[in-house]
Amino acid sequence: MTLLQAVQVRHSVRRYTDEPLRKEHILALTEEMEKVNQESGLNIQLVTNEPKAFDGLLNHYGWITGVTDYFALVGKDDETLEPLCGYWGEHLTLFAQTLGINSCWAAGTYRKIPDAYTVKDGEKMLMVIALGYGENQGKPRKSKTYKQVADAPEDAPKWFIDGVECALLAPTAINQQKFKFTLREDGKTVSATAQKGPWSMTDLGIVKYHFELAAGKENFAWE
Ligand SMILES: Cc1cc2nc3c(=O)[nH]c(=O)nc-3n(C[C@H](O)[C@H](O)[C@H](O)COP(=O)(O)O)c2cc1C
User: Fold this and answer.
1) Which atom of ligand 1 is least distant from the CA of 109?
2) Residue identifier of the C-alpha nearest atom 21 of ligand 1
3) How many Cα atoms within 13 Å fall on the side-chain side of residue 119?
4) Distance 105 CA to ligand 1 centre (A)
C-alpha cells in the first residue's frame, strides 16, 4: 500500500484490540521515526507497552481504549512546533497505516505520562498519536467541500484540485477543517492558511502534508 492509498482507507480508530504492536512493526516504525527526526529536527519518540496514557477515567466516556503504544510528539518549544509535528506526525500516521496499524491523533483525551518519554531543555511534548490494531477500521466522516476550502479559478490545474481533495481527507482536531488553500495568479504558488481554532496550526501541517502527497512537490511552491 502506498501513502496515497493509505489516505483513502485511514480513519481515526478509538477502540483497539489488546494485542500490543508486533516486534516487526515496532522496528519498522522506529526506523521511519528516526529518519523523520533526522530530517525535521524533532524528537518524536515511540512509547511501547505503556497502558496509563489511555487508561482510567477517560475510558468511561468511550473515547480511546486499548492503547499501550503511541508516538509522543516532542520538539523545540517555539512557533514551528505545531506545524512541524502536524506535517511529520501525519507522515508517520500514514506510514503506520501502510503496515496495517490503525491510529488516532490525541491532543486532549489522554493523560501525560512524563516517565514514558524524554523532553530535553527547551523542548515540549505537544500531543500523542495512539497506535494499534483496531477493533474496527473507523469510518468516513462529514467533510467540507472543495469550494469551501479552495480559492482558485474554475480551470485550476488538476494537481491543485487533487491536493485540496487529499487535504479534505486529512484528520483535523474535532474535525474542524479550518484551513484554506489559495492558488496564486502565477499558477504555481500555493498559500495554505489556518483560521483560529484549537490546534489549527497542527492541522495546517497535517493538511499541507496531504496536499503535497497528491499534488506532487514538483508541480508547485509554497508561498
Ligand atoms: C491535532 C489533532 C488533535 C486531535 N485530538 C483528539 C483527541 O484528543 N481525542 C480524539 O478522540 N480525537 C482527536 N483527534 C481526532 C479527530 O477528532 C479526527 O481526526 C477528526 O474527527 C476527523 O476524523 P478522521 O481522522 O477519521 O478523518 C485529533 C485530531 C487532530 C488532527
Assistant:
1) 8
2) 175
3) 17
4) 5
